[in-house]
Amino acid sequence: MIQLEDTMNINEKKLHMITKALDNSTRIKILYYLVNNNISNVSNLINIFNISQPNVSRHLKILADANLVFSTKDGKERIYQLSDKHVYQLLLTLKTHIND
């Protein structure tokens, strides 16, 4: 159980960044896509979600700023994946909550 004292120590900036990142269905779908496929580049996400390159890049920047995804460089392109197992757990909990 979360105690009131624990909530007083929450990093407000990180909380804002994460809730902002999760306040968009396309960003959540990108995260679920990464759960299922482990990695992706921008071109692949453009094709999967049928949205423009600037739009995909903007979504990925917001997710990266919230530390939900990170990228590595492979030649001229960036490869994206979930930041860590906590993001995976968060998405699992979200999916369970949505489906209940």
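That was protein one. Protein two is written in the same sequence-then-structure order:
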Amino acid sequence: MSAVAAVSGNLGSVAYGLAAIGPGIGVGIIFGQGVQAIARQPELTNVIRQNMLLGFALTEALALIGFVVPFVHK
């Protein structure tokens, strides 16, 4: 049994773990910058919150795609 064959069963798990890093960082940046923006301009809270939630939804969609692709690729 070669080393590649031993690792191939776990590649989906490794791929999802790596795919979750980017969206995790992205969500942190979105909410961190959103809180700073609301602190600087409280009168725009509704607009900033709306943009934060839209960015969060798009970022989480990337995480879900990263979860599904290893299973579909087989």
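Residues 11-40 form the longest helix (30 residues). Keep this in mind for the problem set.
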